[in-house]
Each structure stands twice: as C-alpha cells, then as structure tokens.
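step=encode ok
step=design start
structure_in=
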C-alpha cells in the first residue's frame, strides 16, 4: 500500500501531466469525401444492399453530430465555403469548371489562419480550387500537398489516363508519383505481388498519417485537410473489394477501411485525445432516401449532409456515452470561425473587411450545456444556390433557410424558401413537419398565414444577393511569367463560354470535342512569351501527334470502355490575345500533322490581364476546336 506522501506525489504528477496536455495546442484533422451523403453510410442506411461502413459508423457513435448541417450543392463551391467561412458566390467560386472554381486571391483560407498561428498545414486528396499560381494549395496556406488535379481523377487537368487504380499518378508536392502497393502503405504488402492492390485513397491516407507522425515527432501542432476524391466518378473497383458489390459501393467501403486505418493510427500514436476531428460526410448532397433532391439541387438532399465532430480533450464526445446531437441549422461556413473560437486562434493580421466571414462559431452548441446556446441561431438565415454557369444568375436554384423557435426555446419550424428560377415563384416548406418538401405552403388554402415568413426570407435573400454578387463580373486569373510557376498550362477545362460546356474531362478531349472559348489569364511581367498549342498533353508527347489518336487507350469515364481517341485533321492554328478593346496579338500559322502542335512567340506583351483564345483548323480552313492544352 502506498504511503500518503506517495499518493500526493502521484496526484501532483497526474495534475501536471494533465495541465501540460491541455496546454499543448490541439491538432486538427478534417476529412471530407466526395459525392456522398446519408444513403452511403450504414450509420444511416440500414438496407441490406447499403455500403458497409463500420469504422465511420463507430466514429459517428462517439461524436457530436450536427443533424441539420449544410454544404454547397456541388464540389468547388462547397470547398470554397469550408476553406474561407464565406459564401461561395462571394468567393468567385460558383462552378466546377470554366475558371469559376478559382478561389479569389484576396480570400483568407483555413490554412492561412492555422499557419499564422504556428501550425503545420497539409492537404491530401482533392483541392479543386485551382492548380496554377496563385490558386495552388501552396499559395493558399498549405506548406505541403498530395493531390489530384481538377475535380476528378480523370478530368482534363489531371495526369493523362489517370484512374483510382494502378497505374495512377498523383502529385506529391507537385512531383508526379506513380501509385504502388509499397508507397500506398497497404497492410500486409509483400514485394513481388503480381496483382497491384493499391487504390488512390490508400495513398492519400498513408501520406496523411506519415505527415501527422512527422509533426508529432517534432512536437508541432498540425492542421491536416483530407478531402478524399472518392466516390466522385469515375468509379473504379478496388482490387481488394468484397464480392457481389458494384464499384461505387466498393469504393465507399475502401474509404471506410482507410478511415479505420486513420482512427487506429490516432489511437495507437496517442494523438486521438487532443486531435479535433471533423468528418463532413459529403462535399455536396446526393440523392438519398431521406430528402427530396439530388446533387446540384436547391432541395434538401442537394446540400444537407451529416457532420461528425470529435475532440475528447475538448469535451466533444469521444465515447458513445457522451456523444450527442446538435439540431440547430449549421453550415460548413461555421467550421472555420468555430475552430478559431474553441482553439483560441488569432485571425490573420491583414484580413480585408471585404472578406469578413459569413459563418459563426458553434462553440456554445458543441458543449454539454444547452442553456448557453447562442440565441442568434434561432434567427440566423443561411442561403445556398446552385449556379453552374459562367455568370451568376439571380434567383437561380436558391434555398433560404431559417429555424424558428417556440417561445420556450425548442425549434418549432425549419423553414425552406425555395426559388427554382427567376421565371418560377417562391416555394415555402417546413422541413420539420414535411421532410420530403411535398407541401408548398404558399399554395395552400391558408397561405396567407405563411406570407410573413416568406416575405422575411425573401428580404434576407435580397440582402444576401447584393453582397455575394458585388464582384461577380471579375475574373480570377492564373498568372503566367511568375517565378512561382515558370510554366503555366491553360486548359480547355477553364474556357469561358457563352453556351455549352468546354472539354472538361479526358474522355471529351479524346473524343476531339468541337468547342472553343477563352482563358482569362494574367501576365506577371512585360516581355516575350511562348505559347505551345497542343491537342494532347505533354506527358504523352512521345506517343501522340497533334493530328493523331492515342497509341495507348484510356477508359471512358462512365462506361469504362477503352478509347483510342479521335484523330483530328489539324493543319493550321491561330492564337489571339487581348484585353478589353485592345488586341495584343492575333497570329496564324500552318501545323505539321506529325508535330506536337503549334508554337507561337509573342513579343512585348504588357504585364497585366489578358484573354487568350486558340483555334485549330483543317486544310480547308474549317474550325475543328481550340487547343485543349496551351503551355505558356
């Protein structure tokens, strides 16, 4: 039996260790998969054919769960809101292509804030806010990144021919790295296996764990952002999937296994207790069994997803016994101000008033005391809309949301005011009483009873629109001629077009889509610039020519059929560069069909903004398409 003095010594030591642990800054890990929602996790979907996600289910059982949590209806807009705490339209990010996914340079990111507070910062997975300077993660507060390019693993900016399975090339701190079983860190890996088993998600998870382990060894706090690119199309079958399921289900279950690896790593490394883990279970909504709508919809399923938060050291659950739910209306925009509040982070010193955060701290909602809940959550309004055009359009696929409280405090109504388009009237639903949004209250016999609520939310939309559309006419521009990125590629993925879609994925490029548009760019310095116009990307220059098809086929995005691409009879090319009414260059030259393309040297370009457009023609002068890749 210990003496009293020994017991006192033990208690003092324990208190000292507890104080030291609490004094150490908390680590932060945010995980967000792609194109998933309620129907994709067995925590919510109990049907026999549902994906089996036991690791994510367990995390849900030991977390604070935000049950009315909203994101943007599509990929890039959602990522901009998460990173900035601001509305996507205000950030210049209202599409996933056409250059309308480049995050404006004056925006302050979550990584900027963490870096300013002495944190190590890294990203693993899908960024989708721009790959070129000044939009790359390294330009936006991340010291390290492992990523795909574009919004999907076979989209045009990504490495040619990429899919989630081997062979696959990922960008590890901008270095193309070929995925292997070894570097994916698969459990039980043995050299000499004949069938590669690695999947892109394996690599992202392994590199994220390696990074956290390195930070822990140096006793440096970290902010790790792990936005998996799955299960966005294309869906590839992980080689180690269970039998009898399709590629989409297998991809989700592979991700769950990696989440299990991640959680086990946090536990065994001792990081779990003081790592604030946020799991947003989808970057946008998807069609599901609970709500009306689908991805890119203004209705509930388009933007409502689950969100789990776990931080045992901070009192945010950690076990099923202290897990709980937060029913108030919340948004991904709230995560940055919440992290700043609960962790005591200072804002960056140079934040402009123009980029003030729209989200609000959830600190009072996350703790265990319902009496101190911020009353402002009973009156706040959150707006989502789905644009997906080159220019913003008022009243397009908009949803205005607000909770209304009873006099005694509980939530009485969850209002959704919806406008499908400018030519259609407003619709009003109470999602608390009408989960599937079947009854438009403004068309009922007692509609007058709801007019006041509708007018209140309509007025809130008008204020919101004035704020988010204030800079809608501006372009976010990749910059050529900068030491930060000596060689810039302008992609057809980013063409601005009056109508139609640009060739935004590799299947469309291979098909030789007859389309054209301009890139909004900028030039860092005045001087001479070389423009290398190509139909195929440089990484396959040794197996293609400007007029040829492919020597090595790629898989078509949806069907997985092999294609060798469409040869194009390209015989001449044109390049035009202008700004406003002033044309800087408009030149044309013949093209050798066995060459890579056409190279133009433009003399004495001024520094500043410029529009760049290209054309490929056949021998008769008929336009075939623009140059899908322009290297500057």
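sequence_out=
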């Amino acid at each position: 039996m210990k003496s009293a003095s020994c017991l006192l010594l033990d208690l003092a030591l324990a208190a000292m260790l507890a104080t030291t642990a609490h004094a150490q800054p908390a680590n932060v890990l945010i995980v967000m998969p792609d194109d998933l929602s309620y129907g994709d996790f067995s925590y919510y979907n109990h049907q026999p054919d549902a994906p089996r996600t036991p690791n994510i289910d367990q995390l849900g059982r030991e977390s604070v769960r935000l049950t009315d949590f909203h994101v943007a209806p599509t990929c890039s807009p959602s990522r901009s809101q998460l990173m900035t705490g601001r509305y996507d339209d205000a950030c210049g990010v209202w599409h996933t292509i056409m250059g309308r996914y480049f995050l404006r340079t004056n925006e302050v990111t979550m990584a900027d804030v963490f870096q300013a507070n002495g944190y190590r910062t890294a990203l693993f997975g899908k960024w989708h806010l721009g790959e070129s300077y000044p939009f790359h993660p390294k330009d936006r507060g991340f010291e390290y990144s492992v990523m795909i390019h574009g919004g999907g693993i076979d989209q045009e900016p990504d490495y040619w021919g990429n899919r989630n399975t081997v062979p696959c090339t990922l960008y590890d701190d901008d270095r193309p790295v070929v995925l292997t079983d070894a570097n994916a860190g698969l459990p039980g890996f043995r050299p000499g296996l004949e069938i590669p088993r690695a999947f892109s998600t394996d690599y992202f998870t392994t590199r994220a764990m390696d990074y956290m382990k390195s930070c822990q060894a140096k006793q440096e706090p970290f902010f790790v952002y792990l936005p998996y690119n799955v299960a966005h199309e294309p869906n590839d079958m992980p080689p180690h999937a269970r039998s009898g399921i399709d590629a989409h289900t297998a991809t989700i279950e592979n991700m769950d296994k990696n989440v299990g690896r991640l959680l086990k790593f946090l536990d065994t490394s001792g990081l779990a207790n003081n790592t604030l883990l946020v799991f947003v279970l989808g970057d946008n909504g998807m069609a599901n069994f609970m709500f009306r709508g689908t991805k890119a919809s203004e209705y509930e399923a388009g933007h409502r997803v689950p969100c789990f938060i776990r931080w045992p050291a901070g009192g945010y659950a950690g076990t099923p016994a202290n897990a709980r739910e937060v029913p108030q209306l919340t948004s991904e925009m709230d995560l940055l101000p919440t992290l700043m509040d609960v962790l005591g982070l200072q804002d960056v010193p140079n934040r402009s008033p123009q980029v003030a955060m729209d989200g609000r701290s959830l600190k009072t909602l996350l703790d265990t005391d319902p009496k101190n809940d911020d009353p402002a959550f009973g009156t706040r309004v959150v707006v989502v809309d789905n644009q997906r055009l080159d220019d913003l359009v008022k009243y397009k696929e908009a949803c205005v949301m607000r909770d209304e409280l009873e006099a005694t405090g509980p939530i009485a109504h969850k209002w959704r005011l919806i406008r499908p388009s400018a030519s259609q009237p407003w619709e009003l639903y109470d999602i608390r009483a009408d989960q599937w949004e079947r009854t438009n209250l403004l068309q009922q016999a007692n509609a007058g009873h709801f007019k006041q609520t509708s007018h209140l939310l309509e007025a809130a939309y008008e204020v919101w629109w004035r704020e988010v559309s204030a800079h809608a006419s501006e372009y976010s521009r990749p910059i050529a001629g900068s030491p930060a990125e000596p060689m810039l590629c302008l992609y057809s993925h980013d063409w601005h077009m009056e109508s139609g879609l640009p060739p935004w994925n590799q299947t469309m490029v291979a098909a030789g889509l007859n389309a054209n548009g301009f890139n909004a760019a900028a030039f860092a310095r005045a001087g001479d610039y070389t423009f290398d116009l190509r139909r195929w990307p440089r990484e396959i220059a040794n197996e293609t020519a400007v007029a040829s098809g492919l020597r090595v086929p790629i898989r078509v995005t949806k069907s997985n059929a092999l294609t060798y691409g469409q040869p194009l009879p390209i015989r001449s090319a044109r390049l035009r560069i202008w700004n406003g009414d002033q044309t800087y260059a408009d030149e044309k030259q013949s093209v050798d069909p066995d060459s890579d393309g056409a190279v133009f040297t433009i003399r004495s370009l001024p520094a500043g903004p410029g529009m760049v457009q290209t054309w490929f023609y056949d021998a008769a002068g008929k336009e075939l398409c623009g140059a899908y890749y322009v290297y500057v």
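step=design ok
step=annotate ok -> The chain has a mean pLDDT of 94.
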